[in-house]
């Protein structure tokens, strides 16, 4: 029998080799703060799905943070199965409380809020260009940081997204494949062209496009400090109490939402955003709200036949027929 700690020491190098640097870094945090304190001294073969559910309920942090901890333990257990240390993965049977589906469009900026964003950003410079790149491309933060001059096709008005630059396990910037390890092209809207040309000026084909003032990589932390983002974002968009403040990733939500507003087909939006499945993309389609708008217009026309109201207890002017609806 081996403990969870012993399994981690033996199997983690193999587990980490299959993960991106960002995921590996997150899993190590989950291990240190949640998994190891809860399960470290337990025998791995004795851990049950119910044990994991109890741990999930006791852990602090957001639901997504706690799910990351379960995912970390599950990855370790999958490796343990391959090594024939256990017969089954206890994380497979874990159940979570069903919650209301997240609406990413609620995080997106409206046109007026986009205008405010442009107003609060510096008039020019690398920090402004990086934020505008997040907004116009819909790329993840690390994907924008990883863009090179040669990725830009000004003739075809596209950018090839094929790498990400993000902090590694020791805080150093690591350049690697994108999430999902897919290469994709994103469109360049005409208003973005001047910012691209400014970013490309004086650089070679293999130089990074959106760098800091000294030519180094920008991270979410140093960009936030440079712009005093916690103060600035309050002038752009606020949220109800209990919801997190505007985040850099919300600019990606904005781009996806705007693609649907521009009547881009869902399959094209999926390709542009790099979503692994169409269900993720459809969350931005806002089809339920569009259904409500269409229903409102139909009801308005229907109620208009009775001077804007239905008269309770009165006989209708004519017998309803299904063809009237």
TrEMBL record:
<dbReference type="InterPro" id="IPR002104">
    <property type="entry name" value="Integrase_catalytic"/>
</dbReference>
<dbReference type="Pfam" id="PF00589">
    <property type="entry name" value="Phage_integrase"/>
</dbReference>
<comment type="similarity">
    <text>Belongs to the 'phage' integrase family.</text>
</comment>
<dbReference type="InterPro" id="IPR050090">
    <property type="entry name" value="Tyrosine_recombinase_XerCD"/>
</dbReference>
<feature type="region of interest" description="Disordered">
    <location>
        <begin position="306"/>
        <end position="325"/>
    </location>
</feature>
<dbReference type="GO" id="GO:0003677">
    <property type="term" value="F:DNA binding"/>
</dbReference>
<dbReference type="InterPro" id="IPR011010">
    <property type="entry name" value="DNA_brk_join_enz"/>
</dbReference>
<keyword id="KW-0233">DNA recombination</keyword>
<protein>
    <submittedName>
        <fullName>Site-specific integrase</fullName>
    </submittedName>
</protein>
<feature type="domain" description="Tyr recombinase">
    <location>
        <begin position="104"/>
        <end position="299"/>
    </location>
</feature>
<dbReference type="GO" id="GO:0006310">
    <property type="term" value="P:DNA recombination"/>
</dbReference>
<dbReference type="InterPro" id="IPR010998">
    <property type="entry name" value="Integrase_recombinase_N"/>
</dbReference>
<keyword id="KW-0238">DNA-binding</keyword>
<dbReference type="InterPro" id="IPR013762">
    <property type="entry name" value="Integrase-like_cat_sf"/>
</dbReference>
<dbReference type="GO" id="GO:0015074">
    <property type="term" value="P:DNA integration"/>
</dbReference>
């Amino acid at each position: 029998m081996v403990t969870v700690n012993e399994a981690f020491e033996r199997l983690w190098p193999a587990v980490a080799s299959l993960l991106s640097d960002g995921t590996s870094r997150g899993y190590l945090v989950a291990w240190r703060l949640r998994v190891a304190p809860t399960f470290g001294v337990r025998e791995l073969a004795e851990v049950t799905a119910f044990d994991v559910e109890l741990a999930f309920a006791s852990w602090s942090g957001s639901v997504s943070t706690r799910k990351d901890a379960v995912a970390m333990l599950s990855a370790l257990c999958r490796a343990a199965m391959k090594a024939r240390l256990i017969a089954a993965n206890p994380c497979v049977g874990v159940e979570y409380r069903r919650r209301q589906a997240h609406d990413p469009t609620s995080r997106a900026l409206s046109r007026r809020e986009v205008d405010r964003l442009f107003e609060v950003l510096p008039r020019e410079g690398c920090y402004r260009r990086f934020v505008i790149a997040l907004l116009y491309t819909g790329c993840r933060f690390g994907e924008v940081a990883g863009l090179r001059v040669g990725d830009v096709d000004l003739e075809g008005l596209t950018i090839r997204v094929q790498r990400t630059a993000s902090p590694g396990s020791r805080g150093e910037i690591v350049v690697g494949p994108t999430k999902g390890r897919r290469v994709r092209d994103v469109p360049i809207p005409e208003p973005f062209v001047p910012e691209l040309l400014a970013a490309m000026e004086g650089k070679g084909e293999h130089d990074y496009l959106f760098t800091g003032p000294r030519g180094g990589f920008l991270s979410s932390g140093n960009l936030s400090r440079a712009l005093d983002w916690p103060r600035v974002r309050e002038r752009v968009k606020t949220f109800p109490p209990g919801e997190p403040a505007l985040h850099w990733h919300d600019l990606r939500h904005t781009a996806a939402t705007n693609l649907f507003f521009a009547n881009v087909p869902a399959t094209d939006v999926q390709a542009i955003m790099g979503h692994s499945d169409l269900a993720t993309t459809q969350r931005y389609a806002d089809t339920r709200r569009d259904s409500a708008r269409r229903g409102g217009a139909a009801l308005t026309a229907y109620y208009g036949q009775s001077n804007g109201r239905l008269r309770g207890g009165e006989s209708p002017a004519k017998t309803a027929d299904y063809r009237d609806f």
